[in-house]
Write a structure and sequence with these properties.
The protein is mainly β. Helices cover 0% and strands 49% of the residues. It has no helices and 11 strands. The strands form 2 sheets. Strands 2, 4, 5, 6, 9, 10 and 11 form a 7-stranded mixed beta sheet that branches. The protein has a 4-stranded antiparallel beta sheet with strand order 1-3-8-7, with no helix packed on it. The termini are far apart.
Length: 124
């Protein structure tokens, strides 16, 4: 089992920046893909940033490309999300997720089996 804990959520003004962190513990050697999802009120959860933790390869949804950056520190079992140029539509609960996947399935949301509890990001 893998435990994930997010932190860093806050309220910011439009145009501002935030950095979210995700601490992974447990059987992390059984996962090689991590991702950030978000869920806004009355909307479905959407994945938008993915990283293959062994290769370092990343993928982004168009909605965040150029504004958000996912990164990892494998020694510390940490994954980060740097969010710049935040918009009100970025308001959501942000979740960290982990999986064992291949590069071809990294953006397939159904492969993610381990989830954090979420952290609130509010942009006004």
């Amino acid at each position: 089992h893998v435990q994930l804990v997010e932190s860093g959520g806050d309220s910011v003004q439009a145009g501002g920046s935030l950095r979210l962190s995700c601490a992974a513990s447990g059987n992390t050697d059984r996962t090689n893909c991590m991702a950030w999802f978000r869920q806004a009120p009355e909307k479905e959860r959407e994945g938008f940033a993915y990283i293959h933790t062994r290769q370092g390869s990343v993928e982004y949804a168009d909605s965040v490309k150029g504004r958000f950056t996912i990164s990892r520190d494998s020694e510390k079992n940490m994954v980060y999300l740097q969010m710049n140029s935040l918009k009100p539509e970025d308001t959501a609960v942000y979740y960290c997720a982990a999986a064992y996947c291949t590069w071809s399935t990294i953006t397939a949301n159904v492969v993610y089996t381990f989830w954090g509890q979420g952290t609130q990001v509010t942009v006004s």
